[in-house]
Each structure stands twice: as structure tokens, then as C-alpha cells.
Design a protein that fits this description.
The complex is a heterodimer. Chain A is built from 25 helices and 24 strands. Chain A is α+β, with helices and mostly antiparallel strands. Chain A has 3 domains: about 350 residues, no CATH class; about 200 residues, no CATH class; about 160 residues, no CATH class. In chain A, strand 16 and strand 17 form a beta hairpin. The longest helix of chain A has about 35 residues. Chain B is an alpha/beta fold. Chain B has one domain: 3-Layer(aba) Sandwich (Rossmann fold). Helices cover about 35% and strands about 30% of the residues of chain B. In chain B, helix 3 crosses helix 4, helix 3 runs parallel beside helix 5 and helix 5 runs parallel beside helix 6. Chain B is globular, with a radius of gyration of 18 Å. Classes of the chains: A alpha+beta, B alpha/beta. At the A-B interface, helix 1, helix 10 and helix 13 of A face helix 2 and helix 3 of B.
Chain lengths: ~800, ~230
């Protein structure tokens, strides 16, 4: 019997090509998106789930509060990590490790350096008990016992010592260079971590190396009051104690050891290992929960739209199949068998859509590759994917198919056979539902259009806003940490002599970046002292010229400790009307008296989400971290950067040159916004496509049903326009209702989003109207086309058949 | 075997009841070939629907083999429906998406007849009506008479005791109609009980009993003697 069902289903699918096309395409888009999102979610949730007792492992975090302000930190104070197992009940094991930033690996034997990376940590022996690594060489028990030992991963080992057996590598010397050199001996080699993991480290230096208090103090892990995010603590909790009790014990421990400071609060929390990927990770490869959830919401919306299409069209067309229902009922079918039959036909369509969807996923994967988490690879035919697809197809079949099937199965045999089942003028649930579903579809399309256009509007508003500096053709070069000042100045001088360089300026930071340094200054006025909170940059006198800042009054300072630049906002805060009045003003910053040499224009030193802060630029050559290099016009950028790298290598042969472009830096501020816009853009396009397909199918059907009415009206003398209006009127009302429904969520989301910007457009109400109008026009176009053909039909031939 | 007592069928309209059938008393025995005749709207189709258990919205008693229908459970009635009745329609009502073979097969599927048996039943029927060559065609590819033959084959495939035919020749021209009626006569000779509704007096001549219906009432009930 089932075979029979599928056979007739298949023939229906082939016979009704438009219907099949609409259903399969719509559903496949929904399936493809959901499949992709499922995979992204699965991927994101599969990190570090392979460790033994992974469900018992927690990361301990710290929350420090100063008055109202909260400073969450993924690290813990060093002493807590040392004593936690003795002082807190129910901890089976713990490990602490300290992540090292920008650490260079040197191999003395080969006189070779491997550049800086963030793959080294100080780890205690507990690390390899807590997390599952396979040992290749060395003793797991003792490898990290002694100071100046190091365990490296297999891939690191073969990179450092190619063509050497693992046993021979044991005992070799490695020097790690962070700010000081750390000589070590290799005591163990482990396989690379097996599986998706947040633990990306390759070099595990024994924690015992941090033996004396002086070193601990340097790393900021010597006191209870210091919290450093590098100092990580993981515990394995016994199932016998609750999380609350562990947290309470930790808090008590911390309270006993903390000095009471005014307004400072401290608390600890523990986060399951499985949550780690959604929090702060060691290489910023984590994903945010809200991003994943946003994707799920969009996927569900698209899928729901596709399902609505299906339900809509099927219930509308069910009248066409009433005859078959009548025959089958007289031949002895019961309602359940009929429902089963139509469900199996739905399943057939869903299967087709799934197959097409799997193809679409490939396209989506490419289109969305920028928004997918790093390291994500789509493996189609894993066990969980196959299961997902099967379950998904069945659920989708039930959800979409059950209502139309019940309607069909419910027809009365003798009425169905007589063709008495027609749409009546009375209230009918089917028609009511159909109209509402259509309204829902249009509402979501309109809402998407409003959002996407408003976000694009705001983005172009931002990108066309004057920043106050020139972002083009400025390269920034990162100076190695603790580099010799004279060498840096020589390097700057050397670069400035290149023909393609217009100017060079040393500074602690780019003219505009995501970092922020604030401090307070004291301004001496006639009678009193004024304390002001300002943004600070450290830069030499060429800074304004290189970055295209305007000097509004005074002059650029002469690279002295005394002279500073201030911006116009600060001038106003100091109480001057005219920037010229501020020249020569005395102020104290960092306990050194200084004098204002010049005033620069207000420019956006951070994203345009924020307002412009008062700012001073002083000069201290000891702490320069960036060289800002303005290139001459029309330079080949690739060429220039290669040459700059070469010059950098002359001065710092052991280091890798890190170059970047200012305009890219500025673009990065808005990367997330661009992502939101692009993803919503896609969603919008798909929502419109699906809604239009649905409308196309539905209107072609309803208008076909009204052909007779149209013909009679024509015979009675109605003009083409009158007929077009007659049919379109209903759809205009539907779009009107959809518009009202769409406005609220769109307004809510947009005002939330715009709230985040200091520089923003006014709520673009005109876009609302335009979006609604756009959808109305699109809708009328589709309906109009159908009604046009319907009204063109010759009434004589239509009416003859009756 | 079939007994109707005081059957009323009416439509409740705002001010009055409009009777479609009123006070119909009828007994039909096994092996009869009954013709229901009457003008349009006389209630022939309605009576057939009631007889065939397609319509249960009526007043009065209906007994099959002495068992009252209106007191049966849904499941029992459904089983009876499958075992007792075969239907033939004026407009053939074949399923357009199924081939001739599959159309005949459908009632057997609903009766859960095993595959091998199904095939042999259908093969016999196709053979009997000379349609073996047409078994893979779709209804739209057949003439009206051939479609009605498929309809009859489908109706008798499940071996029902009673065949109900509503204007079986209404859409056919006279030669085809004659052929169909001859098939009916043959089936009757083999022992089938047949009840047909028709306008055409000529069709009644094939039967054994003629019942005239006018405005929902039985006006005459006579047996037909064959020469």
C-alpha cells in the first residue's frame, strides 16, 4: 500500500510542475540553511568534549567590582590556583597554567628562531592529568616536575627538529623569549590534541619555572589582589559536592586573604568546560552565543516561511483533489489511510527538497564562509548529519503535511464526488488561515527589508562621515616589545629616507584603533586647578602631519617631554572659547608639568559609535609601539610593504615584521555591523524569494478559481482595469495588514541597534514606507500578471464548459 | 437481505423541511436486479447513497441481513461497506493518476488482499473485459465505454454482494450503453445483486424489478418478466 502511495505521489509531483518547483525550492532553501546552522552549532558544541570526565571540569573565573563598575576576568589570582585544592572541599584535581603572549622560540643548537606566537604556556603537571593527551616520549608523571622543563607537541617537535627521532629530541635545549629568555630542556613530547579543542598550545613550560617571588611578581601572580587573565585555573569537581558549595568555599578563601579595599569587591565563578568555546578563548576562535542564536532564529524564520508556503498552497489546492478522496472513500479507504497517503506524498517532496538542499548547502557554505567560525569544515555525511536529516525530514513532513492531509482526509465522500466542495462565502477556517499565513510571510519580508535598508543607510552614513584624519595610504608597523629606543628612532629615520615614504611618526598606538588609554590631567587656571579625565596618546611631532590631522592653533610640538597637543574638545573642557587661547596653557600629566603647544581638530580616534573624548598627545620615546608610515600617492602597496619588511629585518633580524593598513583597521571597527547587514541581506533576499513564490502559486490558483467570475463580469461589461482592481484589492489589504505587523519588530530591533551609535541617522521612517510600498508593488505585479491573463481569456470559451 | 423501513431524508431549511425521501419502505432480496427510475431530483441517487452506506444522515431503519445499520459501530459499518458493496458511477470516477491496472487494484489494497492474489484477480478481470492490452494506460487515454468497463471491473474486484450503479450509462452513447448493460446482465446471471438508478426505460428491461420514484416517494414497484 505504501508503495502505491509513493507511486501516486511521484506521479503527482511530476504532473504538477509549478507546484513541485515552488515546494521543493522553498523547502530546500529552508533545509539548507537549517542544515548549515545545525552543523555550525554542532561544531561549536563539540569542543573539548573528548576529555575524560569532561563534564566535571570547570574553569574558575573572577569578577572584580569597583563601585558600580564590573571587571570580569577569565583568570584567577595566582595564590588561589596554588591553594585551591587544599582549601576547597570536593576538588578532585586542578591545573593552573599561564598563557604567554607573543613568545618566540629559539633553538640554540641550530641557531634558529621561529618567530613570535601565542602557543606557549607555563603549565603545572596537573595539565596533562586534566586534559587528554597521548604521550609519545617522556614520563607523564615527572615531565613538568622540575623548573625549566618543557613538553612540546608532536607537530611542534617535528617543526623544531626535523628528521630527528622523538627519543633523541628529549633532552634538547629550547629557549623561549617573551620579555626575557627562558632556557628549557625538552622532557616530553605529546601528540597534538585529538579533536576539536580550545587548547591550542604547543609548548608547555613547567610551572615550577616560576619559582621565586620576583618572577611571580613580574608575571602578576604573586598576590591575591592581582588578577591576570593569563593565569588560568581549571578544576575537576567531585560529583558529591554542588557547584554552589565550591563557589562559596572559593569566595570565603578569597575573602580571608584579600586586603580590604574601599569599594572593591571580588567574587569567583566556575564555568563548565563545554561553555568555554562561547567565552574567552586563547586565540579568539570562540563564537558568541548570541551570534549562534541569531543564526538559528534566521534559519527558523526562513524555514517557517517555506513551510507556510507549503501549507498554504496545499490547502488551497486540496479542492482539486477532492474527487480522488471521494473515490477512495467509496472504494473502502478510511480517513487515516488517506492522511497517510498525503503525508507520504509530502514526504516525497521533502526528500526531493532535502536532496536539493544538500546541493544548496555547498553554495551557502561559500557565500557565508566569512561568517562561519574558523576551522569549520562541512562534512556532509557524518552520523549526526544523517540522523539530523532523517529526523528533520520526518518532522518537516509532519509539520507541513498534517494540516492539508487532515483537510483532505476529512472530505465527505458523496459531497466530494458531486463536486459540492467549493469555497463558500461563509467563514472558513482554511481561507482564514491561508490569509493569515500569507500576511505572516509578507510581514517578515517587509521587516527584513526595513532592517537591511536601514542598517545599510546607517553604514553608508558612517562611512561618509568625516573622520578628521586621513586613513588612506598609512601603514603601521609594530615595534617589538621592549625594543631599544635608539634603534627604533634609527629605524624611523631610515624609513623616512625611502622615496615612497612621505613621512614617519612613532607613537604608542595608531591614530584610530580599538584600544583606549585614559588618564587624568590637572589644568592650572587663574585661581584653581581643574581635574579632567582625558584620552592619552603618546606620539612624536610628525604624528599630526602623517595622519592628516589639522593643527587648528599653535604648532606641532618639538618632540620634547614638556610640549603636548590637545584636541578641540579638551580646549572647550578647559574653558576656552577660542583654541588660540589654550596655547601656552600649563597642565600636569603623569606628575610632570607640561604646556600646550598646539591644538588639533577633533577627530574620531575610536569607532563612530562613540563620541569624541578630550585628548592629549604627549611624547615619550621610551614607549613607542608603532611606526605610522605615510606613503606617497599612487604607490604599489604590496611593493612598499615588502620593502618596509626588509628594512625592519635589518634592524630586528630575529623578529617578524607586522604591518597593517590604517584604513583596514578602521573598517574592522564595523566588521560585525557589516556581518549583520550581510547576513540579514541574505535572509531578506531568501524571505522575499520564498514569499513571492508562495504568492505566485497561491494567486495563480485562486485566480484560476475565479476565471468564471471574471468571464461573467466581462460579459456584463467590466473593463480590464476594473477586473485588475477587483482582484488586486484583496492583496492590497493583506499587504497593508502585513505592514502593520512588520513595523513593530523592525522598529524595536533598529532602535536597539542605533542606540549603540553616538553618530547615527534619525529613525528612517521613510524607509518603512518605501519597504511597504516595495512589497506592495512586487505583490501587485505578481497578482496583476495572473489576473491579466485571466481577464484576457475569452469569456465564450470559459463559460461554454459550464 | 436489504430492508428499509420508513426512510426519511430531508434538508432543514429556515422555515421548512424539504424532503428528498419520504417514507420509503423497501425490501431487496439476494440475486435481484433492481432498477430505480424517476425524473431528476426524485431521490434516486440519494437512495443509492443511503443503501451504499455513503450517507448516514437520515431517519428510519436500515437492516442488512437483519442487522440494523444505524446501531453499528463505525468500524463494523466500515467493514460491511467494504465486504458488501461495489460502486459504479455515471462519470466513471477513475483516479486519473493511476493506470487501469492500479485503479482496479485500489479496492483490493484497501481490503488487504495479498499481492499474488491481487494479481490473479486483476488478470482475470482484464481478461474478461478484453482489456489486457490496456492495463498500463491511464484513464484519460481510454474511451468512455472503456472507462466504465474499468469502473465495473474495479467495482466487482472486491467480490461485493451488491453492486450499486448510479446512472452507469448516462455519459455513454447507445452502443456503449448496451454493452455495459449486457455486462450487468451477465453479472446478474452469475448471482450478483445489482441496484441501478437510471433515466432510461430501456435499461430497466435488463433487470428483474422496476421501482419508480417521484418526489422522494415510491410510486410503483413491479417485477419485470423476461420473455
Amino acid at each position: 500500500m505504501l508503495f502505491n502511495f509513493f507511486k501516486i505521489g511521484f506521479r503527482n509531483v511530476l504532473r504538477n510542475k509549478v507546484r513541485t518547483f515552488i515546494h521543493v525550492l522553498g523547502l530546500s532553501i529552508g533545509i539548507a540553511i537549517c542544515f548549515l546552522i545545525f552543523n555550525v552549532n554542532w561544531f561549536s558544541h563539540s569542543f573539548d568534549d573528548f576529555h575524560t570526565d569532561a563534564d566535571k571540569i570547570y574553569r574558575v573565573t573572577t569578577l572584580t567590582t569597583f563601585g558600580e563598575e564590573e571587571f570580569p576576568n577569565s583568570g584567577v589570582p595566582g595564590p588561589l590556583a596554588e591553594v585551591i585544592q587544599d582549601e576547597v572541599k570536593g576538588i578532585l584535581d586542578k591545573t593552573t597554567f599561564y598563557t604567554l603572549f607573543n613568545t618566540m622560540v629559539l633553538i640554540p643548537e641550530q641557531d634558529r628562531s621561529l618567530g613570535r606566537n601565542n602557543l606557549s604556556v607555563y603549565a603545572d603537571p596537573g595539565y596533562f592529568r586534566m586534559f587528554d593527551y597521548e604521550w609519545i616520549a617522556g614520563n607523564p608523571e615527572t615531565a613538568l616536575e622540575n623548573p625549566n622543563s618543557v613538553v612540546i607537541t608532536e607537530s611542534a617537535a617535528s617543526r623544531y627538529f626535523s628528521n630527528t627521532s622523538f627519543d633523541e629530541i628529549l633532552g634538547k635545549e629550547l629557549i623561549y623569549y617573551n620579555t626575557d629568555s627562558i632556557p628549557t630542556t625538552v622532557t616530553g613530547i605529546v601528540e597534538d590534541i585529538g579533536g576539536q579543542s580550545n587548547f591550542i598550545f604547543e609548548n608547555f613550560i613547567s610551572y615550577a619555572t616560576l619559582a621565586n617571588d620576583e618572577i611571580k611578581s613580574w608575571y602578576g601572580i604573586d598576590s591575591w589582589s592581582n588578577v591576570n587573565s593569563s593565569s588560568q585555573l581549571f578544576i575537576k569537581k567531585s560529583p558529591e559536592v554542588s557547584e554552589e558549595s565550591v563557589i562559596a568555599d572559593m569566595m570565603a578563601l578569597s575573602d580571608r586573604n584579600m586586603d580590604e579595599e574601599d569599594g572593591t569587591g571580588r567574587s569567583h565563578d566556575m564555568h563548565p568546560l563545554s561553555e568555554m568555546h562561547f567565552e574567552r578563548t586563547y586565540n579568539n576562535q570562540g563564537v558568541s552565543r548570541s551570534f549562534l542564536n541569531g543564526m538559528v532564529v534566521i534559519g527558523v524564520i526562513i524555514l517557517v516561511l517555506a513551510c507556510l508556503n507549503f501549507i498554504n498552497l496545499e490547502t488551497a489546492q486540496s479542492i482539486n483533489r477532492s474527487k480522488e478522496v471521494g473515490i477512495r472513500k467509496t472504494l473502502g479507504s478510511n480517513r487515516f489511510q488517506l492522511v497517510l497517503q498525503f503525508l507520504s506524498e509530502t514526504l516525497l517532496i521533502v526528500i526531493l527538497a532535502t536532496l536539493l538542499g544538500l546541493g544548496l548547502v555547498q553554495i551557502l557554505g561559500v557565500a557565508f564562509s566569512d561568517y562561519l567560525p574558523g576551522g569549520f569544515i562541512l562534512n556532509m555525511f557524518t552520523v549526526e548529519n544523517v540522523l539530523f536529516l532523517i529526523v528533520f525530514a520526518l518532522v518537516l513532513t509532519l509539520v507541513t503535511g498534517i494540516y492539508p492531509s487532515l483537510i483532505l482526509g476529512g472530505y465527505q465522500a458523496q459531497r466530494a464526488l458531486k463536486g459540492e466542495i467549493r469555497q463558500s462565502n461563509k467563514f472558513s477556517l482554511g481561507v482564514f488561515l491561508r490569509k493569515n499565513l500569507t500576511v505572516l510571510q509578507f510581514a517578515s519580508s517587509i521587516a527584513f527589508i526595513i532592517l537591511v535598508s536601514a542598517i545599510s543607510f546607517q553604514m553608508s552614513f558612517l562611512s561618509n562621515r568625516p573622520l578628521g584624519f586621513e586613513k588612506d595610504a598609512v601603514v603601521h608597523l609594530t615595534i617589538p616589545l621592549f625594543a631599544d629606543t635608539d634603534k627604533v628612532l634609527q629605524l624611523a629615520d631610515r624609513i623616512s629616507q625611502e622615496s615612497y615614504v612621505k613621512g614617519v611618526s612613532g607613537s604608542n598606538d595608531m591614530v584610530s584603533s580599538s584600544s583606549l588609554w585614559t588618564s587624568d590631567i590637572t589644568v592650572q587656571t587663574d585661581s584653581s586647578e581643574l581635574e579632567l579625565y582625558v584620552q592619552v596618546k603618546n606620539a612624536d611631532s610628525a604624528f599630526a602631519r602623517v595622519n592628516g590631522l589639522r593643527i587648528v592653533a599653535g604648532k606641532a610640538p618639538n618632540n620634547s617631554e614638556i610640549e603636548v597637543l590637545v584636541n578641540e574638545t579638551l580646549v572647550r573642557e578647559m574653558g576656552f572659547e577660542d583654541p588660540r587661547e589654550a596655547i601656552g596653557q600649563d597642565l600636569t600629566f603623569n606628575e610632570i608639568p607640561r604646556v600646550v603647544a598646539g591644538v588639533i581638530n577633533d577627530y574620531h580616534s575610536r569607532t563612530l559609535r562613540e563620541e569624541i573624548r578630550p585628548m592629549i598627545i604627549y611624547y615619550d620615546p621610551e614607549y613607542l609601539q608603532k611606526l605610522n608610515i605615510k606613503l606617497t600617492d599612487n604607490q604599489n602597496l604590496a611593493n612598499a610593504t615588502t620593502q618596509l619588511e626588509g628594512i625592519f629585518k635589518e634592524y630586528f633580524p630575529m623578529e617578524t615584521a607586522r604591518l597593517g593598513f590604517l584604513d583596514e583597521e578602521v573598517e574592522r571597527f564595523y566588521r560585525q555591523d557589516v556581518q549583520i547587514r550581510n547576513i540579514l541581506g541574505w535572509a531578506c533576499g531568501l524571505a522575499i524569494l520564498i514569499s513571492c513564490m508562495g504568492l505566485f502559486g497561491l494567486s495563480s490558483f485562486t485566480i484560476a478559481q475565479r476565471t468564471k467570475e471574471i468571464s461573467i463580469r466581462k460579459v456584463l461589461g467590466a473593463s480590464m482595469q476594473q477586473i485588475l482592481f477587483l482582484i488586486s484589492k484583496e492583496y492590497m489589504i493583506l499587504v497593508g495588514i502585513s505592514f502593520v505587523l512588520a513595523v513593530f519588530p523592525a522598529y524595536y530591533f533598529l532602535s536597539e541597534w542605533l542606540m549603540g551609535f553616538e553618530n547615527k541617522i534619525d529613525m528612517p521612517y521613510i524607509l518603512y514606507a518605501l519597504s511597504g510600498l516595495g512589497v506592495l508593488i512586487l505583490c501587485l505585479l505578481i497578482v496583476g500578471l495572473h489576473s491579466f491573463f485571466a481577464s484576457r481569456a475569452n469569456p465564450a470559451s470559459v463559460l461554454k464548459n459550464e | 437481505m436489504i430492508e428499509l423501513k420508513e426512510i426519511d431524508k430531508f434538508i432543514e431549511s429556515r422555515f421548512q423541511r424539504i424532503f428528498i425521501l419520504k417514507g420509503v419502505n423497501l425490501t431487496i432480496n439476494e440475486g435481484e436486479f433492481v432498477t430505480l427510475m424517476g425524473p431528476s431530483g426524485a431521490g434516486k441517487s440519494t437512495l443509492l447513497n443511503i443503501l451504499g452506506l455513503l450517507d448516514d444522515d437520515y431517519k428510519g431503519e436500515y437492516l442488512i441481513d437483519g442487522r440494523p445499520i444505524h446501531r453499528m459501530k463505525e468500524r463494523e459499518r466500515s467493514a460491511l461497506h467494504k465486504s458488501e458493496f461495489g460502486y459504479i458511477f455515471q462519470a466513471y470516477h477513475l483516479i486519473d493518476e493511476l493506470t487501469v491496472f492500479e485503479n482496479i487494484e485500489t479496492p483490493l489494497l484497501y481490503r488487504k488482499v495479498p499481492s499474488a492474489e491481487r494479481k490473479s484477480i486483476i488478470a482475470n478481470l482484464l481478461d474478461r473485459f478484453n482489456m489486457v492490452a490496456k492495463k498500463d494506460l491511464f484513464p484519460a487515454q481510454l474511451s468512455g465505454g472503456q472507462q466504465q468497463l474499468v469502473g465495473i471491473a474495479r467495482a466487482i474486484a472486491g467480490k461485493p454482494k451488491v453492486l450499486l450503479a448510479d446512472e452507469p450509462t448516462g455519459n455513454l452513447h447507445s452502443a456503449q450503453a448496451q454493452e455495459i448493460m449486457e455486462v450487468f446482465q451477465e453479472l446478474h446471471k452469475e448471482g450478483a445483486t445489482i441496484i441501478q438508478a437510471t433515466h432510461a426505460r430501456s435499461n430497466a428491461d435488463y433487470g428483474t424489478r422496476l421501482i419508480n420514484l417521484v418526489d422522494g416517494k415510491v410510486t410503483s414497484d413491479e417485477s419485470i418478466q423476461h420473455a
